[in-house]
UniProtKB/TrEMBL annotation:
The lineage of its organism: Bacteria, Pseudomonadati, Pseudomonadota, Alphaproteobacteria, Hyphomicrobiales. This is Uncharacterized membrane protein. Keywords: Signal. It holds the Pfam family DUF2282. It comes from Rhizobium hainanense. Residues 1-27 form the signal peptide. It comes from the Bacteria.
Amino acid sequence: MKNSIITLAIAGSIASALASVAVPASAADTKEKCYGVALKGQNDCAAGKHDCAGKSTMSYDKMSFKLVPTGTCTSMKTPKGNGSLTPA
């Protein structure tokens, strides 16, 4: 019984160590705030007349941002122009 507990403890430690190595970098590290591309109610956070996620009342609000893959924001086209890295 004692050997099986020790074996399980070691196996658990090894599994934890391997899992932490296999985890990719945080998703936030590969995302950037892109203003003016979020659809109504699909913004990721604060701006202007609302305080946070999902509260925008109009699509393509230049004060609301959506997290997008880094490097793609300014090439995104909307009916109101391209995305912006800064609020308007």
